[in-house]
Amino acid sequence: MRILWTIIISICCAEFTISYKPVVLLHGILSGSDSMSILKYEIEKNHPGTKVYNCDEFGGWFSLENAWKQVVQIKEYVQNISSNHPEGIHLIGYSQGGLLARAVIQSTPDHNIKKFISLSSPQAGQYGTSFLHLIFPDLAAKTAFELFYSKVGQHTSVGNYWNDPKKQELYYKYSVFLPYINNEIESSNSTFFKEALTKLEKLVLVGGPDDGVITPWESRYSCCLYSKNY
Description:
Blueprint: H1 2-13, E1 23-26, H2 37-46, E2 52-55, H3 67-83, E3 89-94, H4 96-106, E4 113-119, H5 132-135, H6 141-148, H7 157-161, H8 168-174, H9 178-181, H10 190-198, E5 202-206
Parallel strand pairs: 1-2, 1-3, 3-4, 4-5
Helix pairs in contact: 1-2, 3-4, 4-10
């Protein structure tokens, strides 16, 4: 774990100027800023003087709220920080936070985010029971689509990026979030979703098969590089 933090810190803080750009951290599902405190500490320890903002928006059970609702509020949080740092900032998101962070970037065409690091995030969606029992104890992956692909299910963040490979027709019909930020469904926002992402200086996707939560684990790398749009 310490090696991973070192790599992340090096990527995020490698600058050719004397001062380091500020870093914004975004926590994962069913957690809050406390879960990112170790990373905050390591950044500040290894790069003294680096300003680190540890976002606590939508902590705990509030992290299950609709993804777009979260993106709007987190976007405002990030923009307020960005306005105080015209030289640019870096953004690190963990798990669901990495997916929301990407949506924040894509929905902000004039952002000044330089580097974005996604840590074990379901960038191409989630399909699996590894963490469902924590939220919906009686829900199994094979029947989860009945909840998530409905108007009620789309009020939850998990439902917004639930990507059932056996129910793709329902995924495209009901999902109001993931297929749009991935440009799988073209919309009036598709062009600047793409342009805002390509404005980044560096995009780093971190993940591996031993996480035990994101299913399939390759979802962390299948970001939004769909050939028809990129």
